[in-house]
Amino acid sequence: MTVLFVLLSILLLVLLIVWAKLNPFLAFLITSIVAGLLLGIPPEQVAVSVQQGMGSLLGDLVIIITMGAMLGKLVADSGAAQRIADFLMRIFGKKYIHWAMMLTGLVVGIPLFYNVGFVLLVPLVFTVAHQYKLSAVYVGIPLLAALSVTHGFLPPHPSPAALVAQFDANMGMTLLYGMIVAVPTILIAGPLFARYLKSIPASPLKSFRASSKPEEELPGTLNSFLSALLPVVLLVGTTVLLMQTDEGSVFYGYIAFMADPGMVMLFSLLVATFTLGLHQGMKMKHLMDIYVDSVKEVAMIILIVAGAGALKQVLMDSGVSQVIADGLEGWDVHPLVLAWTITAVIRVCVGSATVAGLTTAGIIGPLIQDTGVDPNLVVLAIGAGSLMFSHFNDAGFWMYKEFFNVSIKDTIKSWSVMETIVAVVGLVGVMVLDGLIG
Hints:
438 residues, 19 helices, mainly alpha, gluconate transmembrane transporter activity, transmembrane helix, cell membrane, Glcn_transporter, membrane
């Protein structure tokens, strides 16, 4: 009966999001309460579990997600993203323009949230496609593959950052492993796959073409790259330094402080505030307005993460997580493949990568702890599964279709297949990495 109640709870979550069109945060909240009552938690304790789950997960993430949103919007509004794209296009030229688009998506996608990156960079795709007389789909898929991978695999994006917190992984190591898996995944799902899409007709509206800033108003190339990538450099650098430093050293505490993801994001934002803001002539009030607007864009993501934390806590407090873990333990399936599969199924049903990833974390948390699998790889396996086959219930599917102005059939042939390639190749990369470090 316990497993049946869990399945009913997940079915309720899917129905509330897909059929009732309820906001995922409300859906998580309602599902958490219903699951708690079904699974035997005393009624007076259900609300406590919900509040505890939301608070414990958000405590780790509010700084990371909000600072990441602020940095991403500053990179966009300052013209740094445009400078990075222009530089890469000059280097690669027309023949390899899709490689330039891929690198633009990877570099700019690290600090930018997916929807922001899509809206910011897709007009650039249309402008380039028009300028070079190329298919917009052929030019755009490599960029979108890179944006998708950074969204699903790499902190400080909300889903991987939340998964790092749920599995008590190391954000710097997750980012390092994530980059190792991300590069071949993007190469296959982006430039290599795009070669088969040249004939897909797309007629994006002229109004969607990028309105570029004048050259003299853009920040310098080095400044743009360093400001956008500083969180990556600091997270990976401090993690490696921490591994090389003895815990008894007088410097260990200071390095651990600087390696904390929240401190990394805060420091990176303060540096960018000067390099991309004040140094470029922006007023402090204008910068603060940019930051306020950026937080509005991620407020609902933060709430969805909180809702997922509530469901996870209810499953833990009821003891059902351990029951499920014990039940799955008999399966002759590698834990990473199991995590990927559960996430992929929920993703196809619900449509949201974030909801799929965080729901899976609540289900299999205890199982992963008992197997001794590297938690950083679990984060990546779930991240890969959360990108599986985007279709009609995913907002990204419709954004792509409408912006590129392609048919449903061609959207599935290009966008949906690209997302599936990302999910499958991502899992293969995680399994290879597991074999190498295991």
